[in-house]
Structures are given as structure tokens and as C-alpha cells.
Design goal:
By secondary structure, the protein is mainly β. The chain has one domain. It has no helices and eight strands. The strands form three sheets. The chain has a four-stranded antiparallel β-sheet with strand order 5-6-7-8, with no helix packed on it. The mean pLDDT is 77.
Amino acid sequence: MIGPRDGLNKYDGTKFISFRHNSDNPESLSNSWVTDIFEDDQNNFTVYRQNSISDNEIWDIEQQNKNTLFISTNNGLTKVNLFDKSFSFIYKKEESRNTLKGNKTRCLYSSKDGL
């Protein structure tokens, strides 16, 4: 799957199938600007669009373990507990040396030692 700014494109082996926002179809994408496509460890896909979580742009998603996702956004990081469906938010703290450099995060990297 490819997620450009004009919808979602799926290659089926012979041709591309495009999915875009259609105001006449309530089951279409809510908007056509796809910012990330995430595949979890169970091979489930989730498509994130601009402003898909609380008017916040999602740029990257990494699964730390079977119960934890990290989502990079324009407003810090979101930590998702998949077990109890809870969210926690990580922001830049001016008074702390052990903090994000800024709240606009674009990319996450997961190493064998963790995120």
C-alpha cells in the first residue's frame, strides 16, 4: 500500500486500486491526505490521515512490543497501551533536560533495545 497526499493506493500484483475521499460516500476516507500506514505484528493495517487524531497530524508509528505503540505527531508523542486501550502523551518540558527536543516529531526508530 502507498499513501500519498491524494488517497490510498493498493497494488494487487497487476494494477493499482485507488481509495480517495468522496463526499457522496460516507464509507470513503475522511480525507485523502494519508500520512502513515501502519502494519502491526498481527498483519493488521491502519491508515492514518491528516488530522485523524484530535486535529493532530500523525507522521510515524512504531510498535514497541505486543502491548505498546508510539505515535509521532505535530504535538509530541502519543503512547498507546493496546492491552487496556489507554493513551498517554509525551511533550517537551522546558524545565527538564531529559525531554523531547521539540513537540514536532516526524520519525520513530525502534532498535533491538527498544524505542
